[in-house]
Amino acid sequence: MHAVSTPRVKVCCISSIDEARAAIRAGASALGLVSSMPSGPGVISDQLISEIAAAVPPPIATFLLTSSQEASSIIAQQRRCRTNTVQLCDRLTAGSYADLRGAMPGVSLVQVIHVTGPESLDEALAVAPQVDALLLDSGNPSLEVKELGGTGRVHDWSVSRRIREQVEVPIFLAGGLRAENVGEAIHGVGAFGLDLCSGVRTDGRLDEAKLTRFFAQVRTAASSP
Fold this sequence. Notes:
It is a single chain. By secondary structure, this protein is of the alpha/beta class. It has a single domain (8-223), classed as TIM Barrel (Alpha-Beta Barrel). Helix content is 36%, strand content 19%. It has helices at residues 17-26, 46-55, 71-81, 97-103, 119-127, 157-166, 182-189, 208-223, and strands spanning 8-11, 30-34, 61-66, 85-88, 108-114, 133-137, 171-174, 193-196, 201-202, 205-206. An 8-stranded parallel beta barrel has the order 1-2-3-4-5-6-7-8, surrounded by 7 helices. It has a two-stranded antiparallel ribbon with strand order 9-10. α5 (119-127) links the parallel β5 and β6. 44% of the residues are buried. The mean pLDDT is 89.
């Protein structure tokens, strides 16, 4: 899979229709809507997720971020929220990706791989054939209180690059991205998409000045060799 010249950008932790519109105005092609999580920022109710998703125009991807590990629960949640993409933030332990696809035709599946070390490459290779994309993040699901995203930490991008080079599905890169390091991320990993939350927020609120600066740096990096 070759990276596109200008990565798609997913703005995560969207908490209102106004934030969704601001992110789209800035250039986002996807929005992340965070449901119940064991830790991390941006959690909103399924009801609010459904309201935001319904207000987003069709070309924009709406990601339901779920911590559920059971296919049946994920299916029920997506039917409540009506997003066009489901992002599985933890490993699937009950049911299968085939179950998800059968019950949610037309809904894209994105599996998060928390890049904790070289072993994450094996996990990515095993999962990739069953999903539409992988999202490489910096959480740690093995902690007593799981970290499933929103850490603001950068992980080892050399592992992410190896994953991108070896899987056949698009890769989103997440974890600690901001205007100051996005150029390095684009050239170092070559991901199809970039995913960010804290890097464009001030005191928890979406910061339009930071959004503008981030997108400007994306365009600059993508146009330079």
